[in-house]
Specification:
Elements: H1 7-25, H2 33-36, H3 39-68, H4 71-82, H5 88-98, H6 127-149, H7 155-176, H8 192-205, H9 207-210, E1 226-227, H10 232-242, H11 259-273, E2 287-288, H12 299-314
Helix pairs in contact: 1-3, 8-11, 10-11
Bound molecules: heme C.
Length: 315
């Protein structure tokens, strides 16, 4: 019985192989299995104990068998054990790959030239180099066919494909991460589910000052086209999130409401309350708000101005 390596190498190596396989095969999401399922710690401990037990048994058997040997056989056995283990095949291949002649045989390959006593050896190219050279030819040929004859995807196309894929993933992500909105990215929501959620938020937080129908009380009328702090989804989102002017009574709701909820209640205010007719409307406050990004609202008016200026010029 010949031990090729010592137990202090064997046990950890086998242990970590089992550990690695366990982590590989147990699906535990982001966390390592050893943390997610504490039972695996027990399993590993068991593995360690069993490995130790096997080592003990093996060395006991070795001991018993050793005692049964004759003295001479014992000596031979010990000598064999002392011998250093070598990876013969690896060593031979390494020397073969270098391809150099041993010193003793150099006389066979020395060339006739003699430059002031300096002579030249005609060594063959080292096989490792030659094989790599052939491999690069094969690689080059395959590459040429793939990309220049059969027009495989080049880097530009691959880049575009990946960007397109990433954009799609961002879209998907945004759908599930509604709380990512802020006043710059918020869009008017029109889904019935969003609007009814917005209505709920409004009923439970805002009616005290704005009335259930938005007609206004302590707070201004939300149903008319006049806005103190600006209309449009972005301004309304900003007002609700950051609050009104100091001392007016409209607090910053971002402490209480999530961004998604603010977007919903802002959309509810704009799509449902705004433009409706409340029971006791508060007189309009602020200015009529015109969306600066909308198409030119009054082309007729503009036209008049132009004709006027033209007529002025003519006069
Ligand atoms: C404590 C009373 C109070 C509550 C509650 C309240 N508001 Fe206000 N709200 C006000 C006042 C007062 C103003 C006017 C602020 C100003 O003039 O700066 C205002 C202004 C607004 C404006 C801007 C109106 C404009 O003309 O520019 C919007 C939109 C608004 N509130 C929505 C809401 C929403 C949505 C809620 C519930 C989440 C809410 N408010 C809760 C008192 C309140």
């Amino acid at each position: 019985m010949k031990n090729k390596s010592n137990w202090w190498i064997r046990v950890p190596v086998i242990f970590f192989i089992i550990f690695g396989l366990m982590e590989y095969f147990i699906d535990s999401g982001d966390q390592p299995a050893i943390i997610k399922y504490p039972i695996t710690q027990l399993f590993l401990l068991l593995v360690l104990v069993i490995l130790g037990a096997i080592e003990l048994i093996l060395s006991a058997i070795e001991n018993v068998m050793f005692q049964t040997l004759s003295e001479e056989a014992q000596k031979r056995y010990l000598a064999k054990k002392e011998q250093k283990w070598e990876w013969k095949w690896g060593k031979e291949t390494y020397i073969k790959l270098l391809g150099s002649k041993p010193m003793e045989a150099e006389s066979e390959i020395v060339l006739d030239h003699n430059y002031d006593g300096i002579r030249e050896l005609d060594n063959k190219l080292p096989p490792w180099w030659v094989y790599m050279f052939y491999a690069s030819i094969v690689f080059g040929f395959v590459y040429l066919l793939r990309f220049h004859v059969f027009n495989g995807d080049n880097q530009d196309i691959e880049y575009e494909q990946e960007v397109a894929l990433a954009l799609k993933e961002i879209e998907e992500y945004k759908k599930t991460a509604k709380d990512l909105v802020d006043e710059d990215t918020v869009e008017l929501l029109t889904d019935a589910s969003d609007l009814s959620a917005g209505e709920k938020t409004f009923q439970s937080n805002c009616v005290a000052c704005h009335m259930a129908d938005g007609g206004g009380g302590i707070g201004p009328n939300l149903t008319d086209q006049h806005w103190i702090l600006g209309g449009g989804i972005k301004n309304v989102f900003h007002t609700i999130s950051e609050g009104g002017r100091d001392g007016k009574g409209m607090i910053a709701w971002k402490q209480t409401l999530k961004p998604a909820e603010i977007a919903q209640v802002a959309s509810y205010v704009l799509t449902t309350l705004n433009g409706s007719t409340p029971a006791n409307p508060k007189p309009a406050e602020g200015d009529i708000w015109v969306d600066p990004n909308a198409e030119k609202v009054a082309p007729a008016e503009e036209l008049n101005v132009v004709t006027d200026s033209v007529s002025v010029a003519l006069n």
